[in-house]
Design a protein that fits this description.
With 627 residues, the protein is mostly helical. It has 33 helices and no strands. It is elongated and about 110 Å long. The N and C termini lie far apart (116 Å).
Length: 627
Amino acid sequence: MEQSPSLEDCLKLLQGERDEQRLAGLLLVTKFCSREDHASIRRVYDAVGVRFLDRLLRTGMGKGTVRGDQGHNQDAYLQLSVTVLAAFCRIPEIASSKDMVSKIPLVLEIMPKESASSFLEECYEFLLLVSTSCEDGVASLYESGGVNVLASQMSTLRSGCHTMELALRLAQLILSKMSRESINNEYPLELSKMVAAVAREFALLHNALKFEALHLLSAILSSEHSSPVHEALRLMSDNMWSTYIRVGIVAILQNRVAPAEKLQALILAESSISIIGEQWLIGPMTISHGQEPQDPIPADRCLLLVSESARVEIAVLLNELAYLKYEASKDTSCTAENILSKQQNLAIAFSLVEKIIKLISNISGGEGSSISESTFIKVISGIDETIGVVLEYIQDAKDHGQNKGDDLLASVRIIGSYLAETPTACEEKVKGLLSYMLTIEGEGESSPFYAICFLFPMLCQITMKVEGCKILASSGGYRAVVECLIKLIGPHDHLVEDKGGIFLACDTVMNLLLKREQIRIRLDEPIFVHLLKALAHWTEVTSDPTVLLMAGSICSLIFDATSEAALLSHPNFELGALNSLNQLILRSLAVGGQRNVGKWFRLEKRAVPAKRVDRSRYSSVNATRYV
């Protein structure tokens, strides 16, 4: 009976002088050496030597020769070399060696030319083992075009196969180890292709690999440097990736999974909305190209699940933050890190609710909506409940004398978004907290600004009535409003993306000025003098009729309630400033006299209260008419 070869027989062949012997030894090793037998694999590696492995790989690539080869076995040599390299790299010491790292570019060069699944799997296994073993490995993978190879091949891999799992882990490794900013700027198109392929896996799979896909998609799309990838996805002709993501997120949120996974799903949902828009929350839930399922999932299911999950997440996070900030020990760095982490997660949940508020606002009252009545009621009820919880959190912060923090600023923002649509909601709570909310600052602010900006849509609406103006006047909140407007338009103006916010601020101030007699505010306070100077600066070089009309109206109202002597009594307010403001009012009157502009302004801004300066109270003002 013929005896099977032993490891010692293989080692003798591997240590032979001729390449034919070494090849025979390697072939025998692949047949009986176990993947887990690291001791035997190490002996084989030491016996064969790195030089022969390098020659074998290059011969398989057509870049070298093995003695005795007649050029007929190139494919076999390539297969054998990759097989043994992957086996050797199961030992971390071998995988991290310079010899193995140097082979990463060669393996990446091979992969686009091969289609055999078993061969590609061993290529991916080799790359993952070497890249995870040392920093040089992942750097070589990235610098040698690993992102290109992954992006081009992931869409061709069979769904759920082991090779796809290895590819996902390689992509995650690159994103975790290399500069996210560099990756996004250098490979936006490749990353968008990767998103499309991974999104398919996220939707179709129902095993642990689904969560791998979720984490990779979140990593690619939720980075602060993801804008180039977002733009590349918007330009894709096939946006099936967005449907895949929607289907995958619904599967996560409607099943019992770990809270951390649900949070990742919410992060991915927020990123998807940032790319597509709020309408992404409502859409097809079918991904098969065949017959429709008997019980199709409603198009508004994603909206309902995201809304409900965000509501729960906000309630939990605010409760935990309140405990950490006001009850837990503040002496540990762990507590500070925990607070920061929860604040970041809270920002995601808040952003989702704000986007849902915007979606509901846009479609409410519209015909043919894809939102069912029951879903609409549930979403509105959830938003109302969330706002109530947020107001309680703000009240808690007020009770503890806290007015600084990004979590508080984000809380004011979501309240502002809600009240912009329903300014009379939670009226008593908002009335009691309004003056406090106007004092809230973000971590990077030295004085309140953004909190006031977030509240302007609501402030503009409530100050249309005397009662709303009285609330601001009695608390002194009108000063914060005026100071914010000065920051928006003055010499050291804050950059704001939406210029409409400036107009809301002007409208709010104008409402206060028009009702000054009922609310009894003094317009000779220094804050209004500073506002006049800011208005002069704002309109110095502009010809925008809306700006001139608003600025002129506010100036005229302030002038009407004070006098030249009162204004000039303030430091740093001189006659030249008075003349400049008079010219502004004249320019405003000239613009307001234009038929189209004047009609539009009267319709949109209620009235143009600007009028010429009363010379009896402003005798020093230059009377020259503006031309």
